From TrEMBL:
Stretches that traverse the bilayer: 126-152
Pfam families: Tetraspanin
Cross-referenced InterPro entries: Tetraspanin/Peripherin, Tetraspanin_EC2_sf, TSN6/7_LEL
The protein, known as: Tetraspanin-7
Keywords tagged on the record: Glycoprotein, Membrane, Signal, Transmembrane, Transmembrane helix
Function field: May be involved in cell proliferation and cell motility.
One Gene Ontology term, aspect cellular component: plasma membrane
Database matches in Gene3D superfamilies: Tetraspanin
Organism: Nyctibius bracteatus
Secretion signal span: 1-19
Gene behind the chain: Tspan6
Localization in the cell: Membrane
Membrane topology: Multi-pass membrane protein
Length: 160
């Protein structure tokens, strides 16, 4: 049991170190995937388009760096900026969304990449605290399992 807990503890420790060391690569990968999702965005409800809409609605953002990122997409030439960027769904017409100067007043201007990464970084202290607490419990479990094993081994001959 102590060996199993030790193995799990080491796996979690390695995962934490790898996540910390490669955090910049994770950000870069997220940014490129978000750019791909914008490029391939369509009205049909595929996973990537739904994810983009959810992020934009939830975080009140639009595009990767800002709302003008949508101007370089195929979707923009057909329909303009998506409705998920609108500050108010009632005050956002399709004509406004096709004109970048009018859209600037009607949509969120901040990009989603910075908001997502800053939100993740702000929550990292909570994740680190919870992980540290779990690691402490695992270490206590390892120590107690070793003590129990030692106790059983020492008293094995007295049972007869």
């Amino acid at each position: 049991y102590a060996m199993l807990l030790s193995l799990i503890f080491l796996i979690v420790l390695v995962a934490a170190v790898v996540g910390f060391v490669f955090r910049h690569e994770i950000k870069t990968n997220f940014e490129s995937n978000l750019n791909l999702a914008l490029r391939d965005y369509n009205v049909t409800a595929d996973r990537h388009s739904e994810a983009v809409d959810t992020i934009q609605r939830t975080l009140h953002c639009c595009g990767v760096q800002n709302f003008s990122d949508w101007e370089r997409t195929e979707y923009f030439t057909e329909r303009g900026i998506p409705r998920s960027c609108c500050k108010s769904q009632d005050d956002c017409s399709e004509e406004d969304l096709k004109d970048p100067s009018k859209a600037k007043l009607k949509v969120f201007v901040d990009g989603c990449f910075f908001l997502v990464t800053s939100k993740m970084e702000s929550k990292m202290s909570v994740v680190a605290g919870i992980s540290f607490g779990i690691a402490c419990f695992q270490l206590v479990g390892i120590i107690l399992a070793c003590c129990l094993s030692q106790y059983i081994t020492n008293n094995q001959y007295e049972m007869v």
